Amino acid sequence: MISFNVPPVVGNEMDYIRHAIEQKRISGDGEFTKRCCARMEERFHAKHVLLTTSGTSALDMAAILCNFQKGDEVILPSYTFSSTANAMILGGAVPVFVDIRPDTMNIDETKIEAAITPHTKAIVAMHYAGVACEMDTIMAIAQKHGLKVIEDAAQGVMASYKGRALGTIGDLGCFSFHETKNYSMGEGGALLVNHEKDMERAEILREKGTNRSKFFRGEIDKYTWVDFGDSFLPSEINAAYLWGQLQMLDEINADRLHTHKCYSEAFAPLAEQGLIEIQHIPAECAHNAHMFYIKLRDLEQRTAFIRFMKARGITTVFHYVPLHSAPAGRKYGRFHGEDVYTTKESERLVRLPMYFRMTDEDRKTVIAAVQAFFAQTEAR
Length: 380
Prior knowledge:
Blueprint (H helix, E strand, L loop, with lengths): L12 H10 L8 H14 L3 E5 L2 H11 L7 E5 L4 H9 L3 E5 L13 H4 L4 E7 L8 H11 L2 E5 L7 E2 L2 E2 L6 E5 L12 E5 L2 H11 L5 H5 L19 H11 L2 H24 L4 E2 L6 E2 L5 E4 L3 H13 L15 H6 L1 E2 L6 H5 L2 E4 L7 H20 L1
Parallel strand pairs: 2-3, 2-4, 3-13, 4-5, 5-8
Antiparallel strand pairs: 1-9, 6-7, 6-11, 8-9, 10-12, 12-14
Helix pairs in contact: 1-9, 2-9, 3-4, 10-14
């Protein structure tokens, strides 16, 4: 059986977890939390990184920091995970969905400006599959209209746009370290705070509304409740697990890129014959091989493909059902413009197994099975 995903393990995680336990400090914001944040700040040239309990909680924090008021609107793609929209609703805003680009499955930057109203306060750029949105255009639109930009870079750790790490371009960036991501702490995430003016409030928000972070740094003699907050700190156990992987950022990235390259080369002939479309990576984007997807003819063929692969012991999966078509999407948000690509492209897309240390044998098995499906299809 070839799984769609295998959570990454580099081998030294238990050593660090044991060390955290021996230090008798396993609650949040200890040694390993600080190590992880410093590592990401240094590597990604991020001003401030705050480790969180999940990518979702990082998005929640970003939305709260935007100070949305009742009736405010946020523009985002419908093709994304529910957390992207949930966070905006939690922050008090109405999600306004726009269509995607079929080449990258990212928000169509040419559809954003028409969706702006006097109530619009922010744009969410969700970087699908670790491939960047067209950030120059998005940032220019935001600056023109005085809007915040939140980068949902849950899938984008180690990916970049024109040399800049995803998550560091907008006002706020959000990473995920869920077990399905390239780097994992089981459940976890990070908020990237890209403006100094937002950092003090972000720390307070993360620490249950207290200024405890200042107290621990020796900046004040006692801490107290100063603003609204919540508990967004992961435990040191989770941070210790992540720390081992953050020391192997390049090794994990190279390994996944190798699998991506093998797939790309193997399936290029199928794409040239017009039987599939393979993932497109724009020239200005350095991706992180978060996933490898192909697009089939339609929903019917995709269903047959998934069934074919499953019969051969290979798990392949589709991805998001567009949020605007979901019950909660209809209740809390609205779609601006025409859904030209979001639904149609989402019904064609299927993801292949992709994970750290995937064996050559498993890669060849997947490739052979995909090729067999289309050989069978063409023979009919």
